[in-house]
Amino acid sequence: MSISVIIFGEKTTLNHEIKAVSSFLADAFTEKQLLKMKIDFFIFIPKQQLPKKVNAPKNINFYYIFLPENADDTSILDVIKDYNRINAYDYIFFGTTVYARSFAVKYAIQEKTHLATNIKGSFFSETVKTWEKDIFLGNISKAIPVTNHRIITLAKNIPATYDEVCYPAWKAIPVEIQSNDYITAYTKENKNIVVGWEQAEKIIVIGNGVDKNGYPLIEQFAKQINAEIAGTRRAVENGLLPVERMIGISGKSISPKLCIVIGASGLAAFVKGIEKSECIVSINSDKDALIFKYADYGIIGHYQEVITVT
């Protein structure tokens, strides 16, 4: 069996990410199984000094590539695809960060293959092989077939308990990741982060109900009313917004005078990030969406029919 692990990190988080993934592998497979595997870690990080030691199994191959500011997503995905085609990995694991999970979604879509999200464990026997999926904020687990899912994102609450020390022989990936040549305020292709956007008086927060075809309308609407755009975890994972604009427990909290929530169901983890807003307006086609319980004003309908731009 061969495994590829994709990790995005910085100096303060890299060791934790490697340790968390190693903890998952040690829990999912026996030591004998791990020793027989080909395991490649691909580390995407800003230019920095690489750690001399990490907590990971000793038979792991460590590859790294330095990311420029405003790194181009397509260049990163091309590297992942090229190495997968060369090595034909049985499984590709993406790390625990939202940024890593968002790339897993993009990669699975481009490769037209199944994706298993929030995996925190596995069960392997002679007759049964399943991934253990973390659902409902970690309170419930669900078993899904291993054979149907080869692209995996790991649950963010995986305990980083692996304590064996490894001294990586770092190997550089001989590819230069491109930067975006220009910056705009909203387009997802350029991933611009406007400093202080969280303090805006008007913020539009999009959820899973907004797709890439509807996003340009949100952009036009935001410009028309002079509002910033942020999103739920699902909107970030779907590639519409950078992780820095994620709202909720695992993202940012905002308190604008006007918060317009479009296409978000209203899970508790998300609502925590907008509850301090002076006025919340929700637009959702599902009349039973939880978000209406927290909104000051609610509009039942599809946002593309509700929003008008001039």
Which key terms come to mind for this protein?
310 residues, five-stranded parallel sheet, 8 helices, ETF_a/FixB, ETF_asu_C, nine-stranded mixed sheet, alpha/beta, Rossmann fold, globular
Helix-strand blueprint:
Layout lengths: L1 E7 L5 H15 L2 H6 L1 E9 L7 E2 L4 E8 L5 H15 L3 E4 L3 H14 L3 E10 L4 E7 L4 E6 L5 E4 L10 E2 L4 E2 L29 E5 L8 H11 L2 E4 L1 H5 L20 E5 L5 H4 L8 E5 L12 E4 L2 H4 L4
Parallel strand pairs: 1-2, 1-5, 2-4, 4-11, 5-9, 6-9, 12-13, 12-14, 14-15, 15-16
Antiparallel strand pairs: 3-10, 6-7, 7-8
Helix pairs in contact: 3-4
Question: How would you describe this protein?
Answer:
- This protein is of the alpha/beta class.
- It has 2 domains: 1-171, 3-Layer(aba) Sandwich (Rossmann fold), CATH 3.40.50.620; 195-304, Rossmann fold (3-Layer(aba) Sandwich).
- The protein has helices at 14-28, 31-36, 73-87, 98-111, 215-225, 233-237, 268-271, 303-306; strands at 2-8, 38-46, 54-55, 60-67, 91-94, 115-124, 129-135, 140-145, 151-154, 165-166, 171-172, 202-206, 228-231, 258-262, 280-284, 297-300.
- The strands form 3 sheets. Strands 8-7-6-9-5-1-2-4-11 form a 9-stranded mixed beta sheet, with helices on both faces. The protein has a 5-stranded parallel beta sheet with strand order 13-12-14-15-16.
- Helix 3 crosses helix 4.
- The longest helix has 15 residues, at 14-28.
- The chain starts with a strand and ends with a helix.
- The model is unreliable at 181-195 (pLDDT under 50).
Question: In a few lines, what is going on in this structure?
Answer:
This protein has 310 residues and is of the alpha/beta class. It has helices at residues 14-28, 31-36, 73-87, 98-111, 215-225, 233-237, 268-271, 303-306, and strands spanning 2-8, 38-46, 54-55, 60-67, 91-94, 115-124, 129-135, 140-145, 151-154, 165-166, 171-172, 202-206, 228-231, 258-262, 280-284, 297-300.
